[in-house]
Amino acid sequence: MLSDKTGAPGQDTSLLAKPKPKTQRPPMYKVLLLNDDYTPMEFVVHILERFFGLNHAQAFDIMLTVHKRGLAVVGVFSFEVAETKVAQVMDFARRHQHPLQCTMEKE
Q1: pTM of this structure
Q2: How far is Cα 26 from Cα 24, in angstroms, rounded to an integer?
Q3: Which residues pair with 101 in a beta bridge?
Q4: What is the per-residue burial (b if ≥16 Cβ within 10 Å, else e) of 61-95?
Q5: Minimal CB count within 10 Å: which of 11, 20, 77, 87?
Q6: Reading across the β-sheet that carries 101-106, which strands appear in turn?
Q7: What confidence tier does 20 reach under pLDDT thresholds 50, 70, 90?
């Protein structure tokens, strides 16, 4: 004989359907490149190809957007991925003595 937590015979409440908790998608973060007057355009194209997997035409278009508008979104990622991309770009730019700025913001 089955019993519930109170010991009443014949009722098994452990099999009742529990409401499924609603899961939320994790927040996403935009990675942005900022324009400066010193970093060569070719270097920005290289960064976009190397760290964001863009082909040359895509990278060139985004580089022009950064140049003309002052900044551009280069991708949208989870927090950890966005943080890693920003760190990689900033480190690579510094090692090549360029003042390129890369940031992230919540979407």
Answers
A1: 0.78
A2: 6
A3: 34
A4: ebbebbeeeeebebbebeeeebeebbeebeebbee
A5: 20
A6: 71-78, 28-34, 101-106
A7: confident
